[in-house]
Design a protein that fits this description.
homodimer; alpha/beta; Rossmann fold; six-stranded parallel sheet; six-stranded mixed sheet; 13 helices; 12 strands
């Protein structure tokens, strides 16, 4: 595979700049940076300080010289404790391994600052490519973060997986839930549910926006009326699912069914409902995104909207290898599937949610 | 923090060796390896081939010169999809972040070959330290793998977490389950259980050996007789838990209670029991290692043996920083806790397990 990496202006610090800043010859700077033994402690200190100060990146430079392949990639996922992402990371890592590539995994922890710290480290380290679950645009500027822009202009082969950034031209492997949500809402309606709540994710995640928008379309397609009072905006993590569980029980519209936009929020919510004696299925029909183990061992098993994570990992590695080979793969979408399970049941003539709310 | 890194004999390939093998001067080799622009394509090819052939490690060399701190560490966990390890990785990563260290996570996938591939990559890349969940001794030689030995003699500051290697002098943060198992077995006995099955892990994992040994001691302490026919040797992954679930139902000794040595095996087993209509608690008392979310949303909630993973992550980062500072921290043990939950119930006078087995 040939590399088409190019350096952006802001990264183009050369060994000459380092030598000049350190007040030594280029030959001396070169010896220090290559680990040549014939260097003095004083020049080592000066050169290393200057290299650090200037953000000199011998690795990026080496890459621009089309020299060393590292046979390694980095994968930045958005939450290590979310079983959806650990399953996805496993899939990427195992498919990369099959392709002869070692994977280093980083955790953004659903936090733009942590994402950017990882990306900054990647700029100065040698990897053959990056697979990123992006944290979304900056809320004020509506642009990618400065660090994301530096990565995208650095020439490091990069793709997005699971999430994308609006307006940013990076090959992305995402999932489309329109069809699955349409089927889920149609099923709920046929079982007598009219008031369907939606527990969504944070607006920085493209998946959260896609899912809520597809839910609204599904309501309209099925002749149901959307109601902003039935929309809870969570953060994709368990604590917000627990809050959503309480919110739902106290909701004046008395929803008889709920769709939850990821597994960690469902885990948080299911625990609250169990503790309060709410019977999933009989009292409340629950559907969740992400077909992870915890949803399948739950009694009753939880209806899910999900896609094949091994396939998503495989497509991500394939797309990255195409970028590494200088090609421009098209974005690809997996189509999510709705799987009906006993957590979804007929709506009762009278809801019995009242009295289940904590005082 | 100063570094006390030293190079082992087997890693001591110098830039002179590379130059000699490439048939170029040391100055030329140095220029190529530092990314100096004044190099010819021919010499680049020769030097890079020679460096690769010889396993030249400029980074390790640079480390021995006490030069650049990278402010990054690598963490090798044994199974990314095991929620215990993703929770532990999150804890290590977040505590490292607080200490100003970026974490790169690798996945051994419960496989010694995958562990060794990751370690090989670490030998040639610059990290300030390594936190490893080791895969155990080589089954034939009863020694650490060659790659593990190379890492341990490379001078890269290294600690073990969760698991250790017998006879290998590396600071380790582990958990001790003796007390918790004693309490679990005493509780089961007081509820009338006599035949307690144990679903254990693979012998390459020190945790699997520690847990089974502590279980046998707990039986003896409580006046119960161990029975090898009640011991299932699994592999810490869900499919072996599913096999164990069937094995238990078909076991002639008709165990009325079971202790399972990790969460993924429990997830595999619980799914089988639910599908076969076995009522956890009423029909079979279940206790599992690892207090992960899936065990708490299960109905009934599952009794667990576990320890504080945030604390384990914190202790691991602390120990690694001590090694990085040239100190020799003592091994430390967390004491696991038994938490009784409704998955454990009184044994019935007559077990009703028969008839629940698939034909």
């Amino acid at each position: 595979m040939s590399k088409q990496g190019s350096l952006s202006a802001m990264n183009a610090v050369t060994i000459k700049d380092v030598a000049s800043a350190a007040g030594v010859s280029v030959a001396t700077a070169s010896r220090v940076l290559s680990g040549h033994p014939a260097t003095s402690p004083a020049s080592r200190t000066k050169v290393e300080s200057a290299a650090k100060e200037l953000g000199f990146m011998p690795n990026a430079q080496a890459r621009s010289l089309r020299s060393t392949k590292t046979d390694s990639i980095a994968l930045l996922i958005s939450d290590l404790r979310n079983p959806y992402f650990s399953d996805l990371a496993h899939a990427v890592e195992q498919h990369a391994r099959t392709a002869g590539l070692m994977t280093f995994i980083g955790n953004a922890n659903e936090d733009a600052a942590q994402q950017d710290d990882f990306l900054a480290t990647m700029l100065s380290r040698r990897v053959d490519g990056l697979v990123i679950v992006p944290q979304g645009l900056n809320e004020e500027s509506n642009q990618p973060s400065e660090m994301m822009n530096r990565v995208l202009s650095s020439g490091i082969p990069t793709i997005f997986v699971d999430r994308a950034l609006p307006g940013v031209q990076v090959p992305a492997i995402t999932a489309n839930s329109a069809q699955a949500l349409d089927e889920a809402v149609a099923t709920l309606k046929s079982l007598g549910h009219q008031n369907i709540a939606f527990v969504g994710g944070p607006k920085h995640a493209s998946t959260a926006l896609e899912r809520y928008s597809a839910f609204e379309t599904a309501l309209a397609n099925n002749g149901l009326v959307g109601d902003e009072a039935l929309h809870f905006v969570g953060d994709f993590q368990p604590a917000s699912g627990a809050l959503a569980a309480q919110w739902l029980l106290e909701n004046p519209a008395k929803p008889s069914a709920v769709i939850i936009a990821d597994a960690p929020m469902s885990i948080g919510a299911l625990r609250v409902w169990r503790e309060l004696g709410v019977r999933v299925g009989a009292d409340l029909s629950v559907t969740t995104f992400d077909e992870v183990d915890a949803m399948l061992i739950h009694d009753p098993p939880i209806a899910t909207i999900g896609h094949d994570l091994s396939q998503m990992g495989k497509m991500a590695v394939q797309a990255l290898r195409e970028v590494m080979a200088g090609q421009k793969p098209e974005p690809e979408e997996l189509i999510s599937k709705f799987t009906l399970r006993p957590s979804v049941a007929p709506a009762k003539a009278t809801q019995v949610m009242e009295g289940k709310v904590r005082p």
